[in-house]
Design brief:
Helix content: under 10%
Order of helices and strands: HEEEEEEEEEEEEEEEEEEEEEEEEEEEE
InterPro entries: MORN_2
Protein name: Toxin-antitoxin system YwqK family antitoxin
Keywords: Signal
GO molecular function: chromatin binding
Shape: elongated
CATH class of one domain: Mainly Beta
Oligomer: single chain
Number of helices: 1
Distance between the termini: 106 Å
Organism: Fusobacterium nucleatum
Number of strands: 28
Strand content: over 45%
Largest sheet: 26 strands, mixed
Mean pLDDT: 92
Low-confidence stretches: 1-18
CATH architecture of one domain: Single Sheet
Length: 268
């Protein structure tokens, strides 16, 4: 009996496989309002394979063998460059991306890798250079940046920028680094706008500039320093415009220029 059942299963499986419907891209159409794919001339959503389904990526057209179920993409698919090299691998469930997606350069090196959950990016996305060096890390939650975004030098792989994000907007600090790893600047952000004290440094670690922002506009006293740490310029701002007395000093601390501004215009 077991042999008979096994034989029937194999026959049914073979018939199902042979009956799998396959169409070319030109034999299908996409309803842009619903996102459902149909065979041309049919009203029932398409179930089967499209052997050369086309996707536009930048200025290139990529092709792949895509499985559809009730008009929606289903399962793992692979997109190819015109050269035949793999461009992207992703998995769909009920027409939505689910799981890991990997995009590749034409030389075979991974370009981007990211996890999807219910068609939205979740987790740490990673971007690479053409020679495989990590260029960036992007923490996503439901398609929005949340956490510390990191950017690396494409040649050395060293950290260049760190930025704090919350709900898709810069929130917290943005830190830039010199090639030697020392801090170059640090800015504070609130709801995507600069807010509070910003500092920049010379490569030797000496303070270079101090600026204060309110709602992304310069406000209050800004200061610039010589590389030896001595004060060079002191300027007063209001709503991103020079307003008040600006002073310039030489390296001994002597005032060499003093100007008064009002609404970004010199008045003396």
């Amino acid at each position: 009996m077991k042999k008979v059942l096994l034989g029937l299963f194999l026959v049914v499986s073979a018939l199902s496989f042979s009956a799998e419907r396959t169409l070319s891209y030109e034999e299908t159409f996409l309803d842009k309002k619903t996102g459902i794919v149909y065979a041309i001339g049919e009203k029932t959503p398409y179930t089967g394979v499209v052997k050369n389904y086309k996707f536009l990526s930048g200025d290139r057209v990529l092709e792949g063998r895509i499985i559809f179920k009730n008009g929606l993409m289903e399962g793992t698919f692979k997109l190819l460059y015109p050269s035949g090299k793999t461009a992207s691998i992703a998995t769909y469930k009920n027409g939505k991306k689910e799981g890991e997606q990997k995009d590749f350069y034409e030389n075979g090196v991974i370009r981007i890798e990211i996890l999807y959950k219910n068609d939205k990016m979740n987790g740490i996305g990673k971007k690479y250079s053409t020679n495989g060096i990590l260029r960036g890390e992007f923490p996503y939650k439901d398609d929005e940046l949340n956490g510390v975004v990191k950017q690396y030098n494409e040649v050395t792989g060293k950290l260049e920028i760190e930025a704090d994000y919350k709900n898709g907007k810069t929130e917290g600090s943005v830190r830039k680094y010199y090639p030697n790893g020392k801090l170059e600047s640090e800015e504070k952000y609130k709801n995507g706008l600069r807010e509070g004290l910003t500092k920049s440094y010379y490569e030797n670690g000496v303070l270079k500039e101090e600026r204060f922002y309110k709602n992304d506009k310069l406000q209050g006293i800004s200061k610039s320093y010589y590389s030896n740490g001595k004060l060079q310029i002191e300027a007063s701002f209001k709503e991103d415009k020079l307003d008040g007395i600006s002073k310039e000093y030489d390296e001994t601390g002597k005032i060499i220029d003093q100007t008064t501004f009002k609404d970004n215009k010199q008045i003396d």
